[in-house]
Amino acid sequence: KAAAADWTLHLEGAMVEEMDRGTFESGAAPNCHLAEWADADGNMWGGIPLYYLLGRVDDDNKHETGAFDADLAGQGYQVDVVAADGYKVTFDSTTLLRNKTIILAYIMNGQPLEDEYFPLRLVGSSLKKAEMVGAVAQIVLHVDAVPAAEPTEPPAQADTPAVAPDVT
């Protein structure tokens, strides 16, 4: 696909993010979060481990140390990976917990994905063929939304009457 073929990935959990192609590809750079997997036909798939993307929306820490909330994932919640045509597979978060073998791939053999899988395909050694969703459009975590912070106002100043000097 030409660089002009832009796309977004909808990530939804406690937070919502529309991740654009540039952000995804930057995160999948070799010096960042790139993960690769070779299928039975010898094709090399490259992308980002799925759990890294969960960490962007599982709470309000999207990319710092501890961005993926392992404690929350260990408690178990459902994760839907949804294709553009509505096809969906669901995983338990405990299966995805720090699992670097389940990858959301954007390239195969160093090239953008073919039309049937573009822009992203879920791949990995532990997945069944029916779980390898192509044309991924959204990932939905079924967790509670992070409550919006209450606006804080400075404490009200007490109206204190001015004291007149004592002139006796």
In words, what does this structure look like?
The chain is of the alpha+beta class and 168 residues long. Helices cover 13% and strands 30% of the residues. The chain is built from four helices and ten strands. The protein has helices at 21-27, 50-54, 70-75, 93-96, and strands spanning 8-12, 16-20, 35-38, 44-49, 78-83, 88-92, 102-108, 111-112, 121-124, 136-141. Strands 2-1-10-5-6 form a five-stranded mixed β-sheet. Strands 3, 4, 7, 8 and 9 form a five-stranded antiparallel β-sheet that branches.
Relevant terms:
alpha+beta, globular
Largest sheet: 5 strands, mixed
Distance between the first and last residues' Cα? 91 Å
- Percent of residues in β-strands: 25-35%
Shape assignment:
globular
What is the helix/strand order? EEHEEHHEEHEEEE
Please state the structural category: alpha+beta
- The total count of helices amounts to 4
Task: Give the overall average pLDDT.
Answer: 85
Strand order of the largest sheet: 2-1-10-5-6
What is Rg? 23 Å
Low-confidence parts: 158-163
Oligomer: single chain
Q: Helical proportion?
A: 10-25%
Quantity of strands, as a count:
10
